[in-house]
Amino acid sequence: MYILILNFFAYLLTLIIYAKHKRKIDLGFLCISAFTLSSLGACWYYSFDLVPLYYPNIRIVPLIYIYALVLLCITPFIRLRLDKIKKFDSTGYEDIFNALSTIFGLCSVPVFINLLINLATRSFTGNVLNSMYESNIDNATSIFFPPVKLFFSVIRRFYDLIVFLLCYNVFLKKHTKYNKIVNTCLLLGVLSFFLYAFQAGSRGGIVKDCTVAIGYFLIFSSIYNSGIWKNIVKKIRITAIVVFSSIVLGLSAISISRFTTGELSTSNIYMSQWISQYLGEGMIRFSDVLWPLEKDLNGDKNFSYIKSLLNGNGYKNNDIANDVYESRIGIKTSVFYTFIGSFYLDFNVLGTIIVCVLIFFFLNSICNKIKIKQKIGFIELIIIVKFFCLFVTGFTSNVYAVMSVQQDEFIFWLCISIIFLMRVITSISHGRLKY
Predict the structure, then answer these.
(1) Which residues 6+ apart lie within 8 Å of 348 measured at CB?
(2) How many Cβ atoms from other residues are within 10 Å of residue 342's Cβ?
(3) What's this model's pTM, rounded to 2 decimal places?
(4) Which parts of 173-270 fold into alpha helices (H)?
(5) Contact 403, 318 (CB under 8 A)
(6) Which tens digit of pLDDT belongs to each residue from 299-334?
């Protein structure tokens, strides 16, 4: 317990120093805050009876290892000053963004209506949400009417892009009647993902979607938080508070559903203990169970989809994949070890350090480019929010370390590459290509 308390104060002191220096809520602040909350959750969880018996060997070295590598990864965000960015550079993308806004907006309406009908006609009490989460069948099959599934398939893998388009239209487009309609439809699209995650019983999906939305809003609002934009930012914040309150209720409903089913319903585990476990389990398990690791997965967990494309092997079913991984290294891989722990499962001590160093240099080069030019481009923005999501949710695990998620990400980035190529072709044809 003393080691966990010291670990908490290390993160808390880092957060205080950062807040005093920056005096702004930005990407770095939220990343550090997430791990500060997690370290507090670890102390809270360890204070319950029997928990110290399950994890008797909490050690300081692995906790220092996590702390150092987390700070290394988020250092580019710590150094990035969002208030110094003068504009979002949409040169050459305008027509593409307009077309995508219309397409995604139109597809979002029937999806949202279907999800609202589900809320009005279905019961989500008891362990229904947990049953949806545990089901091996694609939740879209049971949630959407057959005609609506086609519309959902169009937007399913592009939540990040829809959130971006909503922010782009709100902050950078004239608020004509047509644009207001498009923005409303895009907002329904964003809300649809939260409703879908709730009805699928996916607590992690809600947290991830919320983190992505915060990332885009934070960047755009920091760039355009002056003059006329202050009123827009104020209205968005009010809307965000209402949505966030609904999200909290949804998370509570999912948690209660899981708490009142299976082993949890017959045990003496209290709800508060279960919440603290969600927050702090990653650090405790990494320190006690995972460190040191005799064998590793050699990239099979974090890069399973890419490896399956190269060698034809892989497990689309995450449960089967975790069973195989566990048999190989003798340790459960379906639980939380933090995102550093996810890398550690694949690459062990030295390999994880190398991965984090590569992440640092990659992000640092992007952030330095933004700092020098005082503007942020489309691809840079997408990359930054992707890593922001990885870090903020990383007190649990690597949210991208599942083959189905990686497959979705592959399709997403393929789409982004096509958008970039279309922009290059358009710019060349107009003789205004800029790098």
Answers:
(1) 293, 296
(2) 26
(3) 0.88
(4) 177-199, 203-223, 229-259, 262-266
(5) yes
(6) 999 998 988 888 767 777 788 889 999 999 999 998
